[in-house]
Amino acid sequence: MTRPLVSLTHVAVAATFLVAPAVAAATAASSAPSAAALRVLDAFLDPAAPPIPDALVAPASFDRLLDDVSGPLAELVRLQPFRYYWSSIPESLRAEALSGLSSSLGVTAYMAADPPDALCPPDHLAHSASTAAALLTGPEPVPVDLVRNPERFTGYAGPSAARVWRAVYEENCFGGAGASQLAPAAACVEERVFYRLASGMHASINTHVCNEILDLATGTWHSDASCFAARIGAFPDRLENLHFSLALHVRATARIAPLLRKNTPRWIADAPDGLEAKQLLSQILSAIENSPPSFDEGVLLSSPLSLKEELSLRVRNLSRIMDCVACEKCRLWGKLQVA
After folding, report:
1. Taking Cα atoms as reference points, which of 199, 190, 279 lies closest to residue 231?
2. Tens digit of pLDDT for each residue in 211-229?
3. Angle between helical axes of 305-322 and 328-337 (0-180°, round to 10)
4. What is the pTM assigned to this prediction?
């Protein structure tokens, strides 16, 4: 199977449902005792609400899909093919504390001496020229257990984190040197799509952080509704972009579903629990295929080649920006979302 298909599979299935739990958490937060966020969420999730800008569906249309995929998804992400992500994490950072917090907030990686049975890099990683070059200049990729390293609060904040997000919005402008910042209302659909994806990723990360935050006094994890309201819930545009990201990834998954049914990737088929993973994936694909189209990719496919290339360049630059994140767990999940 070619690298683009394997990569798109990871993005469309794994990354889609990095967004899906965030959307589900955002929906659940509508019961939180925040008047401002409640008003925004009630209006946003109203069944009569219009479609998300640049998408084909309204936010409420995802309710049934999330209900249908939540069970199979919860099981799928604990199976070997989707549980591990190959990441080049410097050895000095693998168990290092973050911002003075407990080392449990760092990344727990399976080392070469203790890999899961039969776990090997996916084909696209093992045979990628860029990966081969990376092995000559950087640490060897190791399988990271995403169940043991969930996306949640890490304590990473302050000027360093602010610089990363400033770079995301200010260093990915379309139109050359004359532009100073991404434009959410840009006339160019490619820039709008990229902005919505970047903003949706930002909202997804913040929702995960607020949904599982650490009480430093007690050492316990909990959901913080006030954090969600302050960062996402009171902002209609952030909620829109979170759902837009889900809409686009769901559509990408629907597009590759026939290929996945015809040619099961080897990294799924050869896994010890590959048969179970294939069955669960089939359930998820069926639910997606039976849902209304959520995004019209024709608006991008019909774009001039120069704009397609610029969109691709901005996505690659977004991945490079994630390389600059000082928090290793934040970098891990950032890279996974834009892989």
Report:
1. 199
2. 888 888 888 998 888 888 8
3. 160
4. 0.78
